[in-house]
From TrEMBL:
<dbReference type="InterPro" id="IPR002559">
    <property type="entry name" value="Transposase_11"/>
</dbReference>
<feature type="domain" description="Transposase IS4-like">
    <location>
        <begin position="10"/>
        <end position="105"/>
    </location>
</feature>
<dbReference type="InterPro" id="IPR012337">
    <property type="entry name" value="RNaseH-like_sf"/>
</dbReference>
<dbReference type="Pfam" id="PF01609">
    <property type="entry name" value="DDE_Tnp_1"/>
</dbReference>
<protein>
    <recommendedName>
        <fullName>Transposase IS4-like domain-containing protein</fullName>
    </recommendedName>
</protein>
Length: 155
């Protein structure tokens, strides 16, 4: 792991807002992932006593997991269409709750699949899971026999 104190400069003085300094200090943290590739990030939390490296990495990983969840939700589940249909506050809340409930239901199903396959839940692709569920629901909708509840349970 590498931790460097760096100094950043604003490239164009005429575009720099007057309340920002011409230079500022930051901390660059580089680390090696298990597969060998090197990743890094820059933070304004420069004091190593107040912000130890292990705590910064822990916070970074938590935030990264949250960002990945947002990405899955926006790109896979909502198909990069972030437009909400409702024109009223209560309708927007209801729509958001529906999106979040659906996301968590897919995640729960992924955990169940992972348990059955005896693999870590992180090995199951969210995009693949939601695509499979979507395809199954389309086939169920075309089913003429009227046994939708039983087929949903089987799915």
């Amino acid at each position: 792991m590498i931790c460097l104190l760096i100094c950043l400069y604003h490239r164009k003085r005429e575009r720099r807002p007057p309340n920002l300094p011409e230079t500022w200090r930051a901390r660059f943290i580089a680390y090696q992932k298990p597969k060998g590739e090197i990743k890094g990030f820059v933070t304004s939390l420069v004091d190593p006593t107040r912000y130890p490296l292990d705590k910064l990495l822990n916070i970074y990983w938590q935030r990264w997991e949250i960002e990945e969840g947002y990405g899955e939700l926006k790109q896979a589940q909502l198909q990069s269409k972030v437009t909400l249909r409702s024109q009223f506050t209560e309708g927007v809340r209801q729509e958001l709750w529906g999106v979040l409930i659906a996301y968590n239901l897919v995640r729960l199903e992924m955990v169940a699949i992972a348990k059955e396959a005896e693999v870590a839940p992180t090995r199951i692709s969210f995009s693949a899971a939601i695509s499979l569920i979507d395809t199954q629901l389309m086939w169920l909708a075309l089913s003429p026999d009227g046994k939708l509840p039983a087929k949903l349970k089987q799915m």
